[in-house]
Amino acid sequence: MSKILVVDDDLSNAEVIQMVLESEGFQVERICHSDQIDPSINSFCPDLVLMDILLDADDGRNICNNLKADRSTSHIPVMLITAMLESQVDNIACDADAIMFKPFEYTVLVNKVRKVLHSAIKIRN
């Protein structure tokens, strides 16, 4: 069972995403504050970080780049979600493995999560 860390400062969005992913058999930890990311990664050891771009005190693109630059977390795929326009997302270069634009159907989200996880496993092997 893959473990997914959901990071979204909108509690209702995070709860719905958690419910959808858990109903598909994923183990999910949900956090709503960017300062909880490092402790959650250390304790939960996620196989994927699913994170909103616009967070309470930071930008998910910057957090993603920091995770990818750190040897201890660079292997963890990061999938960003956002309500921003695609042209706005490109304002900050980002090393995310995938980006989904809101609104999206939850079946599409689940399929994208599976695809990103599958790709990460293929790369590691």
Distance between the termini: 18 Å
- Counted by DSSP, the helix tally is 5
User: By helix and strand content, what is the structural category?
Assistant: alpha/beta
- CATH architecture, please? 3-Layer(aba) Sandwich
The fourth-level CATH homologous superfamily is Response regulator
Structural Rg:
13 Å
Percentage of residues in DSSP E strands: 15-25%
Mind explaining what this structure looks like?
With 125 residues, the chain is α/β, with parallel strands linked by helices. The chain has one domain: Response regulator (Rossmann fold). Helices cover 43% and strands 19% of the residues. Strands 2-1-3-4-5 form a 5-stranded parallel beta sheet, with helices on both faces. β1, α1 and β2 form a beta-alpha-beta unit. The longest helix has 19 residues. The two termini are 18 Å apart. The mean pLDDT is 92. This is Two-component system, OmpR family, alkaline phosphatase synthesis response regulator PhoP. One of its GO terms (biological process) is phosphorelay signal transduction system. Keywords: Phosphoprotein. Pfam families: Response_reg (PF00072). InterPro entries: Bact_response_regulator (IPR050595), CheY-like_superfamily (IPR011006), Sig_transdc_resp-reg_receiver (IPR001789).
